[in-house]
Amino acid sequence: MAFEVQSEIRKRLIDAFTDASGEFLSGQSIAELIGCSRTAVWKHIEGLREEGFTIEAVRRKGYRIVDTPQKLSSDEIRLGLKTDFIGQKVFYYESVDSTQKIANDLSTENAPEGTLVIADEQTSGRGRMERKWHSPKGEGIWMSLLVRPEIPPQQAPQLTLLTAVAAVRAIEEAAGLTPVIKWPNDIMVNSKKIAGILTEMQAEADRIHSVIIGIGINVNQDRTDFPKELLGTATSLAIETGNGLPRSRIIQEFCAQFEKLYLLYLEKGFYPIKLLWESYARGIGSFMRARTYNGVIEGVALGITEDGVLKIESSDGTIHKIYSADIEFPLS
Fold this sequence. Notes:
BirA Bifunctional Protein, domain 2; 8-stranded mixed beta sheet; 5-stranded antiparallel beta sheet; transferase activity; transcription; HTH_11
């Protein structure tokens, strides 16, 4: 199905309901706020109802949204979104091969910073090291975020670590869980993966055109939804909390957390993000095993460098810098 892009009037309508915080808005006040006729207001209200929104209409009071649809949509994501630019432009798809590919295409078409591409299903989702990411219909959050930071290309990997912190904080706020980060970008709950991040860059030698950050979060899967090979390693928010969760709430919280951290990063640099990342990281100060392309390195994790590189001190006192690896935490 072709993507859905919000009209400017629809976006203003959603912003007006967001600002109203559940209070009634008269048809006249809506018309003045969004700059259209009352007839046009009525048509857009009906459009929201067709999407599954429950809208109460009371004579002499006006309209208010009392419930949102279970199905994701651009409008549902924007209703309640408290950001200035992250997620303010949303492209929503029923099913795609990869949101990363679409976001990369949008980047070349000069889509604005903060553009979010979201799919209800990915048929060819992928994670780090080209591994397949299981992205079933209606169960999780499969999205890609476009940013255009004015930083040197060699600093782009820092955004992966920033995104991991934003994802952990969003899950804490929206689901009440306490995830940890497994270097570099796996979000874990009870030693099982609940979210992952994939960062890709379009750049020249000295200038970034865009960074596309893919985020996958398992939300409402139960154990029978995972392939057999993932049963021992993957989990979802619903499994861990015992309740289904509205995906739009988690997306909104992620956007808010990311925007706050991103602006901090652009102003203060990576150091405050580094400290936050290490505070959420699993295994700092503990023994771990790193399986790299060149062999296995064992030792105590010391933290990360300014470039986001993992430091491990082996038993002979050698400090190894780990750029890419699978991390394990042996029992002994």
